[in-house]
Design goal:
Thiol Ester Dehydrase, Chain A, alpha+beta, single chain, 22% helix
C-alpha cells in the first residue's frame, strides 16, 4: 500500500539519440531543439539546442509510475507540469515521485513529480502534480 510521504527517486539521463527518436515519433520538429539560430530566437535562448522536448521529459514519470512506483497496473489519470528550467541532453537528473494524498476508497493518490539536476539537487527543472489510480496498491 502507498502512504502519504512515501517517495521514489531514480537517476535519469536522456541522450541525443533519444531526443531524435522522440522528434521522429512525435512529429515535433520545433527547430529550437536542433538549430542554433532557432534556439537563439526562443525564450530559452542558445541552450535550447541541447534541451529535451518537454513532453519527452514527461514520459519519465509515465515510466516510473507504470513500472516502478507504484508499478504495473497504475493508471496515470491526470498531470500538471511546470518546466522551470530546461532539461538538457546527456545531463544527469534525479526524477522523484512523492505521495501527497491517498484516497483508499477510490484507489487514488495525488503525487508530486520533480526533476532536479543531480549536481544541483536544490534546483528544480520540472515540477508537477499528478493523480494516479491503482486498484491493489492504493
Amino acid at each position: 500500500m502507498l502512504y502519504v510521504g512515501e517517495r521514489f527517486e531514480t537517476r535519469i539521463r536522456l541522450s541525443q539519440a533519444e531526443v531524435e527518436e522522440f522528434r521522429r515519433f512525435s512529429g515535433d520538429s520545433n527547430p529550437i531543439h536542433d538549430d542554433i539560430e532557432g534556439a537563439e530566437r526562443s525564450a530559452i535562448g542558445r541552450e535550447a539546442v541541447r534541451s529535451v522536448h518537454g513532453m519527452h521529459v514527461a514520459l519519465v514519470f509515465t515510466r516510473i509510475l507504470g513500472t516502478q512506483f507504484p508499478g504495473a497496473g497504475t493508471v496515470y489519470r491526470s498531470l500538471m507540469l511546470e518546466f522551470d528550467e530546461p532539461v538538457l541532453v546527456d545531463t544527469e537528473y534525479i526524477a522523484e515521485v512523492s505521495v501527497l494524498s491517498v484516497d483508499r476508497k477510490r484507489h487514488r493518490a495525488r503525487v508530486l513529480t520533480l526533476i532536479r539536476e543531480a549536481t544541483e539537487p536544490e534546483k528544480t527543472n520540472v515540477f508537477g502534480i499528478g493523480l494516479v489510480i491503482h486498484k491493489e496498491r492504493i
